[in-house]
Input
Amino acid sequence: MALEFNLQLPRRDFDLKLSGLFENGITGIYGPSGAGKSSFFHLLSGLEKPVQGFVKLNGKVLTDTEKGISVPVNKRRIGVVFQDRLLLPHLSVKKNLLFGVPYVKESKLSLHEVVDFLSLSSVLKSRPGEISGGEQQRVAIGRALMTSPEMLLLDEPFSAVDYTLRSTILPYIKGLKEVFPIPILVISHDRDDLEKLTERICLISRGRERALGSMYEVASVKTG
Amino acid sequence: MGNTASVCREVEVSMDLVILRETVFLSLKIGLLATLFNLPAALAGAYFLDRVLVRNRSIIEGIINLPLVMPPVTTGYLLLILLGKRGLFGSFLYRITGYSIAYSWTAAVLASMVVSFPLLIRSIRTSLDMVDRRFEYAAMTLGAGRFDLFVRVSLPLIIPGIINGLVLGFARSLGEFGATVTFAGNIQGETRTIPLSVYSLLQIPGKENEAGLLVLISIVISFGALFLSSIINGRVHHGSGI
Output
């Protein structure tokens, strides 16, 4: 499985121009705030449309501005874990996890497997507002996994969690690549967190890719 | 003679009570039906205005809100022009079915619907506007289409707004006078609701007590509706953790 893209989107401060090919496993998207990381995710998931370019996932065209193709967000099979989790407040954890199941023809994972993998059995009946930030983050990941996505996007999974709680999420995200052989893109502006997750980091600054490699290789590149 | 006078008084009192009860039940029936019939249209209208319509929104909002600012009697007169026996659509309906809407309890329901609709749709729209659109984006990435987004995400989140709108609409229907008296008339047992009955009783010397009793009943009903809505809202808020 692989993600191939070439995207252009004018923004107020700069023009976002990104292209590349990401294969299975975790790729860290690293860069300062306002570098265009979240816009990149919105373009991939279909929440924003590029002025020019394409997105291909496993050979299937999701966006192609020249051919006028734009697969709707709900048909893309891209799991997104938003920065603010966005768990539905009126539903229990269990119902949040099962939310996307009716839209999937064949779910590769059972609720039991996801709950076990993310250690969520004790909070299934709780509402999102009643559980900790780390648990909410795991529910958001589980909810996306339940839809058997062909790619997973995690936007700043550690930003809303305090430093001590990060260690409770990190192993789960790291474990994803073993269990789910799909491209997993993780946005973070925290160098340490990404370094613990992956060896493959894409540095983005002002809408352009500045470097791709290990954190050691990327760290020496100036982002200005 | 004394016995006959007392029997007559008792009959008169029981007749008054029958009429009173009839008036209260008619008001409740008209208010509830108007509110319930308005609900699906208000939900669809609020969604259309908030989520679908991009252009000419203020024109359509203006048309919807007209009954709020127009004198109710003129609203009733417009309804009569449209749906009366000789009205634009009413005459057509009368020719086909032999039935005229005007001066019937259906007309009272319609008049109440028209005047209370803006309150219901405004309340729902305000709530819909306050729903964080990012919840819908999250649900979209999970596979939900437009209809499911509304039914499974937006609708449960706007329940307090719907309840408030229903109570406001019901209260407005209960107090409706001008449009009803013009379009539906003031017919005992058919269209004479509480406000019309209070007005009619105040025209008859010595009937002030009955009018006062009806006023008291309408206050109790309105207060009860508000109390019920605050209880339901409290449960919804508590249950959803919003």
